[in-house]
Amino acid sequence: MDSTIRYYDENANTFFENTKDADMKGVYELFLKYLPMGAKILDLGCGSGRDTKYFLQKGYDVVAADGSMEMVKLSTQFTGRQTLHLTFDEINFNEEFDGIWACASLLHVTRSKIDSIFNKIYKALKKGGIFYSSFKYGNGEEIRNGRFFNNYDESSLCELLKNHQYFSILEIKITRDVRKGREDEKWLNVVLKKE
At what angle do helices 69-79 and 50-57 cross, to 10 degrees? Predict the structure, then answer.
């Protein structure tokens, strides 16, 4: 994780410019349709702050967090709200959120650590809370351009979720990357509910 955070610290401005305007409305709908208006959302691994800004504009109460100090600075500036400097290991909320949004962020967590992070997310959600996450479509771990990726397909995701039966699956959906020139890349999106 350290090398991945370092990547974002060193490439923060480029990453910000490449992601801040991506049209995610179709994916937002997957998540927001399960939440009441004004719900409290944790944007976990918020990056540029793009999604936090959208949720705030729609009237949701949003807490943004990222492990990269440089991304925290850019997100805070972009959203007008202080982003928390928190790694996944440092999450320590207790039944605080109606929804947790982890868009293209938990894909940086190793398979050896992902169970403990899911447990922290479960604890942070209120009963009946909604948890969204997305992963690059595939199966296995890899280092790409200095960043660590943990990819899932339907089968490997279902194996992971066997360890977390306190979540029920609401939806699993494959989408295409919305960024220009990346349309051939596929994403695995999952929406879970805390029982």
Answer: 30
Mean pLDDT by groups of 10 residues along the chain of 195 residues: 85 86 90 98 97 98 97 97 97 98 96 97 98 96 92 96 97 82 82 97
Q: How far apart are CA 80 and CA 150, in angstroms?
A: 31
pLDDT score for 17: 86
Q: Compute CA 36 distance to the chain's CA centroid, rounded to the nearest angstrom.
A: 20
| Model pLDDT, residue 1 | 54
| Three-state SS at 183 | coil
Of 88, 93, 121, the closest CA to residue 190 belongs to 121
Q: What's CA 95's distance to the chain center, in Å?
A: 18
Distance, in Å, from the CA atom of 46 to the CA atom of 67, rounded to the nearest integer, reads: 9
- What pLDDT, on the 0 to 100 scale, is given for residue 65? 98
Domains of the chain listed by start with CATH number: 2-194 (3.40.50.150)
Among 60, 47, 56, smallest CA distance to 20 is for 47
Name the nearest CA neighbour of 120 among 103, 108, 134, 106: 106
Under 8 Å between Cβ of 43 and 65: yes
DSSP codes of every residue in 13-54 = HHHHHHHTT---HHHHHHHHTTS-TT-EEEEET-TTSHHHHH
